[in-house]
Amino acid sequence: MILINQKLNYMKKLHIITFLLAVLIMGSCKKSFIESLQNNPNTPSTGVVNPPNLILPPTLTNLAIASNSYGVNTSYEDQAAWLGYWNYSAGYSFNSPVQDYIMSNTAPELWDNYYGILTNLNYIVTTTAGETNYANYNAIANVVEAICYANLVDLYNDIPFSQALQANANFFPKYDDASGIYDTLVARLDAAMTSINANLSNAAVVTPGNDDVLFAGNMTNWLQFANSVKLRLLIHESAVTTKQSYLQTEAAATSSYGYLTTDALVNPGYSSSQPNPMYGGFGLSPSGSINGEYTYIKANQTAINFYYNTNDPRVGYFYAANNVTPTNPNYFNPPYPIVFTESSTTGYSGDNLGSQGSITLPGTDTAIGSGIGSGLIQAASQGAVIMLAAESNFLQAEATLYGWLPGGATAAQTLYQNGITASYLYLNVGGSSAAATTAAQTYYNQNLPWVAFPTTASTDSLVHTILEQKWAALNGTTVSEVYTDWRRTFNSASNTGYPIVPASTSAPESHMPFRYYYPLEEINSNNVSWAAAGGASVDPFNTKIFWMP
Asked: Whole-model pTM?
């Protein structure tokens, strides 16, 4: 009885938190959305009492917050540090949990984030099932569910899936096989794409409008986004030798719908009073003061070195010059072209993981470090990243090299270069689309390692180049995908994966963690299922996700 009461309290807590999050986030949406959200979507009576257009905006907004390394909810801050993007200011205590790879049943933890979002998505899916006029909402919810479940698998491996989200029908859901979950998600994405494609010209099916804070009801974009998500999942599994035929068949099928060509950005109406979460953490407050995360999070020298060594002007957009803050007018207008110097005022610097505040430059007597740059903190009203067009291109380039998509190394080279260009465009390098495109061309035409793409090189070498540039492009946004890249290409002999990033110098472990521990609540409230899934034997540094070699 005690265990049942614990689970009841947990499920009640999950529903309440999810609903409160939805209401809070809806404050960023248009007034009509807020006025319409009068009932708890998790306790419907009959029929579609709360239409999905009321649930979709906060759900997509919560996804953007949960799946990024944002300042107001630093879900992936630890990964951003592990991967050589970020570090911490000298003015704060040494961040031992992140710097030393300290893992526990309570942190880092993203279990509740995604299952909370999945609660609302499950409501949309179940209430629109069989409702022909809501077919688009049903498909959208299935696409977003695939993202959430895949993100959970990528962190925890086996998870509750087939019996999840049943509330009082099943308080103790079993853990499903991670590889099988991926197969089911791919099938659901296929079904969602078939539905979207069939209804593109069907006037009887409701097309989302402003409530779709991702694509504003552009179902062709949703179709291509879903297709890109599917390709992402297949790429994650590329090292699974027993699934090669399946992967090739499924990847080849993606060529019929096209892929994401525009950045997938959530924007429920961000403004100076209710800013984009990245800006809310790192930018300026409405009063003009610097928000707290900007003074706490600094650059990692690993990324600085890469951008310097490859003559990459993106360094001035991912990071601010030393001693330049968002209160400086030059912050939002970084110098271009970049002058690669070590000056205390015009150069860029940071600490490697395992150090904090050790960087001093000639002519200075205090530790300094570059803050997060204006390419990531563009404006309070900017959209929040779900997937960048750069990633879409890099995924296609990798799949092409594997022979899953046509064209061979020559086509892969074009897609690779398109990925770099898309990154430059997102950051607005040079201040205009034309300048960004020209800068990208200048950059990838250099004959430098991890920049040039010689089509006669080995597949492994070219995949390495793609993943180094993917790492360079996703800095500060969807870092979870780079974390997955590193793990799925991990080589036990070299003790690293692609991208190659140094291990922390202060940690006892020789590499970053492979996975997270299951959360404490599962040990306490779903112990039988947790134990059956091998929860007691999880070792974050040795227990692998199913798609790891």
From this structure: 0.91
